[in-house]
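FAQ: What does the model actually see?

It sees only this:
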Amino acid sequence: MRIEDHPILGPSKVKATIEIEVDGKKIPAVPGEMISSALIAAGIKVLRRTVKKGEARGYYCGIGQCTDCMMTVDNVPSVRTCITPVREGMKIRTQSGHGEWEV
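And it is asked to produce this:
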């Protein structure tokens, strides 16, 4: 869900969208928004699973200080999605544990 009409800022002026791929599913994103924002808007809440117990983690601090939003982005593990902007065609995967580098 995105805020389309803010009570103070007014209606959103952004109309263009791009497409990113998350775990094989294509979702729309607004150019310039952070990956985690696009995921939240698409209803995706689990971004990674912990090393020991495989517990779900998602968006938490929103400023890149914690590690709860880390995902594998374009084959690079442990990318903090709350501070990484979307790009057309990005391939993002839910990360398990520390993630793995892919060749």
